Amino acid sequence: MLFLLAAYYSNLIDFMLEPFLKEGVVEVGCDEAGRGCLAGPVFAAAVILPNDFKHSWLTDSKLLSEKKRVELRSFIEGNALAYEVASYSPKEIDEVNILNASIYSMHRALLALKIKPEHIIIDGNRFKPFNEIAYQTVIKGDGKYLSIAAASILAKTYRDDYMEKIHEDFPMYNWKKNKGYPTKEHRLAIKEFGITIYHRKSFKLLDEQLKLDL
C-alpha cells in the first residue's frame, strides 16, 4: 500500500512540473538558497535542461530529503545542457542588501553559463534585467517548472556543503545542522560567543526574547 502511494505521489509530482514556460527557445531556470539565514553566503543556480529531461522526484528542494537532494544533484549535473552555481558573500550582502544579493548571485550564475539563454524564468516575484534577455518571475516556480526546481536543488546542496565545511571552524554555532538559519540555538550561540566573519551584520542577529533569562 505504501509503495503504491509513493508511486502515485511520484507520478503526481512528475505531472505537476512543466518542462518549459516558453517553448521553442533556450530557457534557463534560476533559484537561490540561504536568503533568510543569519550566516553564510546566499547561493544561486542557473540551469538549462534538455527537452527530454525527466525525473519523478524533481520538485521544490524544500520538499525533499537531504538524501534525495544529493542524488538529484548528480542527476541534474549529469543531464543538464548547462548549469552554474554562484554566490554572494556576507560582506557583499551587507553592502547591497539580501534582495539585491539574491538577484546578483543569479546574474553571476547566468553570466558563467556555457550556453547563452534566450529566456530566463526565476522563482519568486523580483528580478532585475540581465543582458537584455527576456525573463519571467514565477511565484513558487520551484514547484511548477523543472529548470527552476533543478536550480533550487543545486543552490541548496551547494550552500549546505559550504555551511558544513565552515562548521568545522566554528562548531559552536552548529551550522552543520541549522545551515546558518535563525534557530534558537544559533541565536543563543551568537549571544554567548559573538559573531564571526561569516555572519551578516546587516541582519537582526539576536531575537528580543533572548534578553530574558532563559
Question: What would you say this structure looks like, in words?
Answer:
The protein has 214 residues and is α/β, with parallel strands linked by helices. The chain has a single domain, classed as Nucleotidyltransferase, domain 5. Helix content is 41%, strand content 14%. The chain is built from 7 helices and 5 strands; from the N terminus they run αββαβααββααα. It has a 5-stranded mixed beta sheet with strand order 3-2-1-4-5. β1 and β2 (42-48) form a beta hairpin. The chain is globular and about 55 Å long.
Order of helices and strands: HEEHEHHEEHHH
Q: Largest sheet at a glance?
A: 5 strands, mixed
Percentage of residues in DSSP E strands: 5-15%
Question: Structural class of the secondary elements?
Answer: alpha/beta
Mean pLDDT: 90
Radius of gyration (Å): 18 Å
Specify the CATH homologous superfamily.
Ribonuclease H-like superfamily/Ribonuclease H
How many separate domains?
A: 1
Spatial arrangement of strands, main beta sheet: 3-2-1-4-5
Helicity level: 40-55%
The number of distinct β-strands equals 5
**What is the CATH-assigned architecture?**
2-Layer Sandwich
- How many alpha or pi helices? 7
Quick overview of this protein structure:
The protein has 214 residues and is α/β, with parallel strands linked by helices.
